[in-house]
Amino acid sequence: MTLEMVFVLSMIILMFAALLLELARPDIIVFSALVIFVLTGLLTPEEAFNGFSNQGMLTIALLFIVAGAVQKHGIIDRIMKKWLNKGKHVKGSMIRFFIPLSLSSAFLNNTPIVVTFTPMIKKWCEEKGIAPSKFLIPLSYFTILGGTITLMGTSTNLVVHGMLLDFDLEGFSLFQLAIVGIPITIVGFLYLFTVGYQLLPSNRGFRDQIQSDTKEYMAEMTVKKEFPHVNKSVQEAGLRELKGLYLVEIIRENERISPVKSTTIIKAGDRLIFTGLISTIAELQHMRGLQLETGSHLELDDLENSHVELVEAVVSHQSSLLSKSIKQSQFRSKFDAGVIAVHRNNERIKSKIGDIILRPGDVLLLLAGSDFIRTYQQSSDFYVVSSLDTPSNLQGNQKKGLFSIGVLLLMIFMVTVGWLSMFKAMLLAVLVLLVTKTITAEEAKKNIQFHVLLLIASAFGIGMAMTKSGLAKWIADGMLSIGEPYGIVVLILLVYLLTNIFTELITNSAAAVLMLPIGIEMASSLGVDYMGFAVTIAIAASASFITPIGYQTNLIVYGPGGYRFIDYIKVGTPLSLLVMIVTVSIVNVVWF
């Protein structure tokens, strides 16, 4: 290994470590590594930032706009909801629902699909008296599998396509990946509705947990001077034997009193930390001298007013709220909403509400204005899943909704018959949607997920550093020396495994960008078709089932489903193995 290769490898290892430890947002970490390569002279500015003009990345940006226009008016959402309610049996209804959902995710961005249908499935499960956790992980998995069917189904496919064009090679056709995508989707269906269904936990919905769980949710109340039991014990104040409520801690200036004894004296200014039923807390605040701290000017009593609602929101993995306490993030002034409770993987967080350091996947119970969901539905800080009291009503324009679907279908047709490239078809579709005012320029801007684009573009630069330094060839040669004696199948398997490990540890697009130069080097050394390795890498990078952090749709359902990390391992590992076996087998037969 040369000194340059050692440096690049060291930087990539440090980058992986930072991503695993969640030291910052993924896009910031990868971009920082790229900047270091530029500052040290390893890459020229042109080489480093070439990814920002890559056709694949720009196509992804346009795809965000087109998908946003289609989903803005809620036509597909309404059709799917009616379709779901037609079934008489639980499993039958879900199969009817997930088949068209998988097909739609082949042409639309799966992140907003999961955000849209998570509350719909939860509500339907509550009405049927079944656990939403039986269907929320499958919701994520089916959209991932469906996304592997077409070139536009997921950003990973477009990234690999764009990189192939950068290497002066032929990219994917629109349905080329369907050779593998359709079989693995079918295998996924068979597994998730048989063995996988049995492995999924039976967790109560978030609404039920709020209503019945006395240990996982917390609230904070301040003792005012007019409280009649100031300078009396907890027992005398009647705060010991509360139905469905438990006093876990008292914060007195810089002192924390925990556990709280019956003889502990209550003083004015004390902050009382309770866990328990939201309804009981609402009743408790009627006691003179006790004030619920919502972090907002809103109060629980305001729920009777249509202008206030309880909202459940999931903290996203690229949120600006991460690694800060709720107080430090100035949540109240930023979002005009108060955090009432925080839910994390079925565990109780022992901290004052304002002091909780937020993590990806945390579920926040918010007291917010009625326009909160509409205002922050597209926010990159969290996935607003639903209002807990009032179902979100889709007020889309039906004619414009049908028109946007027509534009999408026309675009697909033009790409399929070869009239336009994917990039040009997307450009034309966006132009038509803007000119006809089906979507406004402001809405188009909101739909573009700039953090995703920054991550992908920066990852292109990291891939360039691997290629230029010779690290990609060195790794490819090492893999060849291990696998070549055992045949091409073992080599495909090694490429798949390494890509899949990367996608579980970092992100799918970054994994694809790092692995493609290695795959192309291996194909060149073996004198075989590069397309087999490109398809393997695209599928392996998308097939993230074992952790909630590898793919953002897994993270969206993490909190609402009340899942634990181990649930993804239990359900996702067999699925990953099945997808790997099917992919490697088909690639070997078709391309080698």
TrEMBL record:
Keywords: Membrane, Repeat, Transmembrane, Transmembrane helix, Transport
Top-rank taxon, per record: Bacteria
MF-aspect GO terms: monoatomic cation transmembrane transporter activity
A Pfam family this chain is assigned to: CitMHS
Subcellular location: Membrane
Domain RCK C-terminal: start-end pairs: 204-290, 298-382
Single GO biological process annotation from the record: potassium ion transport
Transmembrane segments: 6-21, 28-45, 57-76, 97-121, 141-160, 172-193, 402-435, 447-466, 486-518, 530-551, 571-591
Membrane topology: Multi-pass membrane protein
Main subcellular location of this protein, as a coarse class: membrane
GO cellular component, one term: plasma membrane
Protein name: SLC13 family permease
Organism: Gracilibacillus dipsosauri
